[in-house]
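Re: the pair you flagged

First of the two:
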Amino acid sequence: MSDLLVGALDLMGWRDLAMQIAVENQNQKRKKNTAAEATFTIALDGASGENDPKLLSNRAFLTVFQHLGPEMLSPCELTSVERVSLQACQSVRDGCTLLCTRLNLSELEQLTVGTSARCASSSSRWLQRMRMLYSQRNLESAICIGSLGCNRRMALVNDGKVSTSTEPKPSSTKAWSCISESTPTATSAGDAQSSSLKMKSLCVTPWALLGVDDNGRVMMAEKKDTGSLHFLPVAGLTGVEASGVYARFGQIYVVTRTGEVYGWGMATDNFGDLSLDQACSRGLPIGGSQNVGKPVLITSAPGLGKFGFGSAPVCTVACGATHAVFVCQTGEAFAVGQGKEGQLGHDTLGDADVPVQMLLPAHAKVRAAACGMRHTLLALTNGEAWGCGGVHADELPILKKSSGALTPAQALEGFTKYAFEAVPRQLDLLPSSDDFFVVGIACGSNSSFFLSDSGEVLFSGVVSGDPAPFGRPKGADPKIPHKLANLPRIREVSVSLSVPLKVHLPWLPGLTILAMPLATEAQPIEAAIFRAADEPKAYLWGSLGGLFPQELCL
């Protein structure tokens, strides 16, 4: 019954009946609201949404979806979002992962066709942004070029199958091999059977090719007696359900579905000299060697949390050659390893044995990170890109570099000017997030790549030996972002990390030579794989490599 009838009964003296009807009305409303709000769950990118879900009704979600944010809603539209918190609206606007129980993105696309003209562009862009962010959840391509140009390998995931090649520029399908789709699993003594294997993400180093299958198992490619590759589970991670595996050089990290981190591999010092075990800490607060032969649980190690790491689940890891960045589900970022050029982002030019929180403003929430040789990139939830570390090669597109004075130790190391950013700062030479919303980032040795929600790619920095990397005009300012031409809309960028080899000459004490491979178009020193957003195609672009990328024939 209506509230008007309840009021009339109350005036007539039938207060008990009026109260009974009012309670019944409230119960019915509560049931309707509960049923409607159980339709959608909003969670920040990387979170499961199980701990603190934000529930939206169908109508409420569509209203929020059609606007840039709650402050853009008119009073007549507020009724449909009165039970939606501002935090949930902010999560949608900042590009969260949408976990719908009854509505997928393709259905959303159909529902937004009938929106008004003033909302159409906003709804369309939100939908596109969500699709792009969703495609960033798994790393489906990886490429590696080892020291002196050796140990080249690229790998791509297509429909759960992994194709790999060791050729610098594979020009035909014959250059690719498909890693075995099944892995032997013991059933009894001396017996084995094949179980279905579908990979969802992967990573490549000069020494290993690893991936995570759709069951959360961490797999490593190993050679059969015939010389072909097949995947076997990593023995030390039996029973661990992983969401991702991350590696580019020596260290390897695994993030579990609950946000814990395992690590193993080789520690490395600057430029690939493997003689100093502790030069790149894995994040373990222990003495002695940081070379770890089998996976160890990092997040629960004693003494690890003295700078706050471990209090929030980790959602992803970015690996460089000598440092790494852990991104938490709360939007915080922690860095570990070498930091002599500020790449750890904690306002000092020094190393860190355990993860230290990167210094960011309270409003800056990190979605993803990328590590180069001496610089770090951060992608925020609001679409901005920030960075820190060395800027000798204009890796970071910033208008005015920070000033400072070299220490005697830095001068002895060969630095001629102060070119460090010890605290993350916004990369102000990039377009504003309204025009270029950053959904993906990637780093080469001294280069940076930025991917927008529209599928455009910008490039800054340098590649040793190439005066016109990735089609940038010769003589162009390397710190000014260059839009990569001759590419379709892109959804994922993967870049090799060519690590120079530091050679100590015994007959010349104190003299060190940095050895790098000779860059040619046939043997590029740095290469990137671009995955198309609108069709199942991938492109390879090397440096040296000319004006046009090469479509890969898988």
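Second of the two:
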Amino acid sequence: MFVIGAQELGILAVIVFIAVMFLFLKLSRMGHVNTLEPASPNSKTTAYVFTLIQRAAIKWPIKPALLILCCFCMVTFVACGSNEDSSSPPPPESAEKYAGMYFAYPNQVGLMNILVETDTGVDDDFDHRQIHFEYDSSCNEPNWAYTYDDYNFWDNNEENGIPGKRDRRLWIIHASNLTPNCFYDVKFSYRDTWAGEWNETWGHFSAAPHTSGVDRSKLPSEMGFYAFGDTRTTGDTSALSAVAKAIMADSGKKTFILHTGDIVYDGGSPVGWYIYNDTGKYKPILDPKHDLHDNDRWLDFFTQGDVWELLRHMPMFPTLGNHDFQVTAYNGDYYDYFSGLYIGRVSSNTYNYRLYFRDSSQGSNLKDHYYLLAYGSVLIWSLTSYPMDTDIYCSVTNANFRTKAEGGTGQYDWLKESLEQHKDDLRWKIVMLHTPLYSPDSCNQSEQNPDGSYKYDAMKLKPLFEDYGVNLVLTGHEHYYARKTVNGIPYLILGGGGAGLSLPADSPCQSNPQCKGFDYVANKHHFAHFQITGEVMAVAIYGTDGKTFDQFTIDKTP
């Protein structure tokens, strides 16, 4: 864009005034004229104006007028040139982008939500944000609509409260009329001012295929997807980067990816709430003027280069992990500061999780974060393990896994009813939750009482899985890989997405992958790929080197 500065305006003014004075001089020498005949009927207005100019030129003393105007031009020129730095407007600042582009599938064929987080200077109009799609001629032209959410994690504590508003605006572009299985490129352009340069970010996604629980002809003959978990880090993102890069390098189609929880660390904190001071302790920032974008774990996740690359190629469907809503300790202690549910000595808030993954819950409470997703040839039930009643790591009593009659939260009843509704469904049935039911380490919820009953409430899920034909259970929480098959159902721990590995050094599973009754255990960062061909699912587990270290198949042929 060409911008005229103050000095250029001064020069232009001199040129204009010289031209005007030349015109006055010329007209004044023509003598007094009462009327001018127009050249045509359509030029009466022009002739009238010209007559007025000519009469003014005759009446005015030409030399004093010329002198005055020339002095005015010179003063203007000098003033503009000498004050250029102070009077010239600064160039428009570039708009900020925080998260995205990434995708959220709203559980309906033909739709896709496209999300980008910018600063609030990007207004809701065509001059500040635009969307553009590219697609094959055989695909439908998308329709779209914009909505947005401004970041507003407000804390009302009267004594120590800080405003939770931030200069952050999450755009949700609701794309519709998509052709199933078609590939779409999408560009989002944004800027803070109408005169500013456009910024842009690109993404790519495959529209969801047709799905049906009763008509096999409407299901895709082949479909693949990915899964990983526990990507949360506290600074070193090298392992997370390696996993994300390995997924993108894999040859499988980038349809979607499941996340088994703990996306980030300190996920319940408002962005930038904590800083790490010189004493080695966390402390809250109480100054609203502080740059509260600092130490934002969600921002760290979305802007990590290889994660950004992964998420702009396929939607991610998460299950809630404890670190996604918990608030870390400060001053050596856990601080019950926020008004969310209180767990042990850790306060909680799901505002950030619900903001970025808005289709992943039944409501705003911690106990409400469960959902059912239907995508092509799979049904995925995502459950929450939280809140736990007595222990923040592995709770014996857990209301999420009890019926309402037993004091449960409602999730168990919802799950049983939903499984009953899909009992004869043709699609693959997958359940996903953060805490594992079977573990070779410290959170083994399959532990039994002396009378043979299960000690942990989570094991009340097992009969539901077996009675209603669940084919696969995915979990996380523990930072390694494990697989155990129970009554034909593989239970996987996919906790090696980037967090520090956690299998104890003295565990027999370090040297023996088939330990403690497990099919396979590996203390490695990893991801899983699932390839469905009709009634057979091939599962491969990959390390960051792109090599398979465990694989198995599930055959549900009648």
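The mean pLDDT is 80.

-B.
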